Amino acid sequence: MDVILLERIAKLGQMGETVKVRDGFARNYLLPLGKALRANEANKKRFEAERATLEARNLERKSEAQQVAEKLDGKSFVIVRSAGETGQLYGSVAARDIVETLTENGFNIGRNQVELNTPIKAIGLHKVVLHLHSEVELAIEVNVARSADEAERQAKGESLTSADAIYGVDEDALKPEDFFDPDADLEGEEA
Length: 191
Fold this sequence. Notes:
191 residues; Ribosomal Protein L9, domain 2; 5 helices; alpha+beta
């Protein structure tokens, strides 16, 4: 199906372009959300009449998204979750959890604007990409930790999943002799 795009859509085209898309994509996504019109003569005339209004609205949305991006740029958000000693979470952190954390901090971001291909399943610092507008995207840092104290230590660069953090042992100081005696007579012993 041929459609006229009413806004820029990534990997598809710019506003005003007539593009060919699959029928289902047009019927189920582009047309119901008002992102496109069917490409016929009446809609082409309608688009040309409304073009200035659409471009102004798009520019306004883009500037709002850029303002939010400037406020979010360089920020780190802490999410506290239960986890085992190895750092594996007893659940996961999904896009919904990231949106809730951003909302608590005064940012109104939709769940569909968070690009998280797989849920976060381990403690640590994670980069998450936010698509605020079709032309504005940025990465924020999400600090997943077991407590606020651990989050501060992780932010400073300390690893909480190493042997040192878990058992209080310095990994660099460990030697093979610490685990077995190389001079032991193993041939005379029976298992």
